Predict the structure.
Amino acid sequence: MARGRRLAHALSKRGVRRGDLVAIRLERSIDQLVGVLGVLLSGAAYVPIDPHGPAARQRFMLEDSQPRIILTSATTLDSIPAALAGIAVTPESIASTQREAGSGPAPGESVGTAQDLAYVIYTSGSTGTPKGRSGRRASG
């Protein structure tokens, strides 16, 4: 939970606000789970991108969703489309920024509500072109 809160704080320092989209293009790992948690705690919604999916599909989803940030691994950073490379960050770069900043989010800080988007998932669509479908946060 602490890593998720630190990531949420780092994302907000990078301009991520409630209602923004953050693409998560990471292997299945603890970093991916921390990424989802951090994005949700920041008030943003996540867009999962399979780093092993076809490059054209990944590019379409990234360009169509227009994320504020792309959270990706250092090993796949160079395969981000050039037009989007400026918004791509790695968990390592976020962590080093946090260590330098030396601060975390305020205790109990939460900006998401049940009405906010939680995610946008792209399906194949009936035409073969990916189509984004969104989900809301659970209330309760």
The domain at 2-102+113-136 is CATH 3.40.50.980 (Rossmann fold). The helical segments are 2-13, 30-42, 55-65, 91-101.
